[in-house]
Amino acid sequence: MKKAVSSLLALAMLLSFLPSTMKVSAAGSYNYAEALQKAIYFYECQQAGPLPEWNRVEWRGDATMNDSVLGGWYDAGDHVKFNLPMSFSASMLGWALYEYGDQIESSGQKVHLENNLKFVLDYLVACDKGTSIVYQIGDGDKDHAWWGPAEVIEKRMERPTFTGKPTCVTAQMAAALAIGSIVLKNDTYLKHAKSLYALSDATRSDEDYVAANNFYRSWSGWQDELMWASVWLYLATNDDTYLQKAEALVPLQNKEDQSDLIKFRWAHCWDDVLSGAMLMLAKVTDKQEYHEYTERHLDWWTVGYDGRRVQYVDDLAWLDTWGCLRYATTQAFLATVYADSISDATLKDRYQTFAKNQVDYALGSSGRSFVCGFGVNPPEHPHHRTAHGSYTDQMEFPDYHRHILYGALVGGPNQTGEYLDSIKDYIANEVATDYNAGFVGALCSMYAKHGGTPLANFPEPEEKEDEFFVEGIIMNNASNDMALKLFLNNRSAWPARLVSDLKYHYYVDLSEGVDPSDVTVSTNYIENDMDATVSQLIPYPGKENIYYVEVKYVDSTNIYPGGQSPHSAELQLRLTAKSGSNWDPTNDPSFKGLDTGEKPTKSNTITVYAGDTLIFGTEPDGTTPGPINTPVKTPSPTPTPTGTTLVKGDINGDGEFDSIDFGFLRLYLLGTRTLTEEQLEAANVNGNDDVDSLDFGLMRQVLLGMRQDF
């Protein structure tokens, strides 16, 4: 079975690189294929819940598995799932596929873009509760007060669910699902897009959108999202009713101050999708009023309109302190989409030149890149908890990022062009799903026009640090009495994870002729909340006179990389020999290298185990850890309700098959999860009475659109 699964994974990787043959043309300043490759990868860094088989991020694991709705994206460098910016970002990825999907086929990145879009749309479907939606999971204030990796956040706080029917969110979700139904040819998405649109149109209010107010308030109101959704429902259904509704909403849009003109001096973004909706109306209807609005808007971003123009910092169109590059690159996408749809040579050149200038600025035309892991002098300190990999709940420690957040577009320079690559400068170095959304679309256009070559071995494996180990300090070494402070560390980051059965061995050498029964092992202190047992001396097999003490934690999930105290467990170990004994602790294998003082020393001869598997250190006979992958500790999926109609592939029992179910099957095949009889029946999609890699392969083909059903 494992061989079959490995073959599928290898085939998927091979197929993703086969079309990567196009070279950078002379017109292209940067390798746009590589930039696109990395910008899409960023979304895999943001995935919540059970990770799909195709996730390529070695330092991410399954996380927030107790959320009321699994899946979706963490918003930024935090762990809240905000559906307003999430669904906006999904709509932008879908729009990129709608405009440039065929053109990026040769880059090998279309499959990754489709995978990431489907992953988030499946989450949005699951958030649709009919007469209401789940619009947020996680408490923004509590979440932002803690600095640790996503995989262990549930050790620190509960994650509340917020429901309602705010039109700004329901309509944005409807738009994203409508676009997804077009580009992914998915009828389920269209069904939910229609029902969410009906709910939006009937509600027309953001009154119950309150939980996100400190983070993603709907400043522009609901009118723009509803018009945006109307346009895409029209394109998805060809039903003129939706187009009529879209045009009827135009007079309701916000106006410029002291003017009858519809507001044009802002940007297409998570809060305001007016300009994108008007642009699509221009394309769909070819009416002059929509063209005039779009050109007025784009002229304000380029050459200026009526004596007014967005501020510029060198070549960068700089709109606002927060996420200036997000706005500029999203406008680049709108500019290139509109330019591709018109015949006016002057306007085409104006808008295409603007689009390329903004993308190139992000990629490095100013002398430095603003995209993590790309180009010259890229950002190394994005404001991102999991990529940083702190295990002490501190931005300052470590003073470097343990992971490269490839493809993340940072906020960018201030209005004078200054930029500080500092994790604490969260304005300059914020990253977010909506920051990358328009950027991905603009890069699709740049690749379509200028080419590029994706990296063949992306991402390269990271050099891992020691994750589990023991540090020690000598407290006392008097005659026949020795005491140590020992600290069992969980600094895991590939991925951060909980391990329920950690233990370690401290080795002693009694070759001085000491009888092991004359040595008493005791403890003076075991850290609070750490239930540990300490053995007496145990003979080490195959090594005469070598013995060890086993320190075993009953449930070591309380040792996790989430704070200065939680990431290590202190225990004071005391060994006392019978009076008159010749015991000499200094020749004990585990004593060597330890010292007195306040700072503990890492010991390679105090060996650490997950269960009975050696994961750190060298045993007295030279045994070292083999290649292991400690699985992420996750609960079992929700059982399929009894008395309901079985849906093939629907392991989590929500009535539909999607990437979340695929993730659960992956965990089952890897041996880290068990399934109930009902779940096994749903997972047996090929009907051969055995859940195996064949079912895994069929599910993958359906998710990739290679087949319609099982």
In terms of topology, how is this protein built?
Elements: H1 2-17, H2 32-45, E1 81-82, H3 83-100, H4 110-127, E2 133-137, H5 140-144, E3 161-164, H6 167-183, H7 187-203, H8 223-237, H9 240-249, H10 274-285, H11 288-301, E4 311-313, E5 316-318, H12 324-341, H13 345-363, H14 385-388, H15 426-429, H16 433-450, E6 468-478, E7 481-490, E8 502-509, E9 519-526, E10 532-534, E11 538-539, E12 546-553, E13 568-577, E14 601-603, E15 607-610, E16 613-616, H17 659-669, H18 677-683, H19 693-703
Antiparallel strand pairs: 1-2, 2-3, 4-5, 6-7, 6-14, 7-13, 8-12, 8-15, 9-13, 10-12, 11-12, 15-16
Helix pairs in contact: 1-19, 2-16, 3-4, 3-6, 3-16, 4-6, 6-7, 6-8, 7-8, 8-9, 8-10, 10-11, 12-13, 12-16, 17-19
Can you tell me about this structure?
This protein is of the alpha+beta class and 710 residues long. It folds into three domains: 2-450, Glycosyltransferase; 468-616, Immunoglobulin-like (Sandwich); 636-710, Orthogonal Bundle (Type 1 dockerin domain), CATH 1.10.1330. The chain has 19 helices and 16 strands. Strands 8, 10, 11, 12, 15 and 16 form a six-stranded antiparallel sheet that branches. A hairpin with a 2-residue loop joins strand 4 and strand 5. Helix 2 runs antiparallel to helix 16. The chain starts with a helix and ends in a 7-residue tail after the last helix.
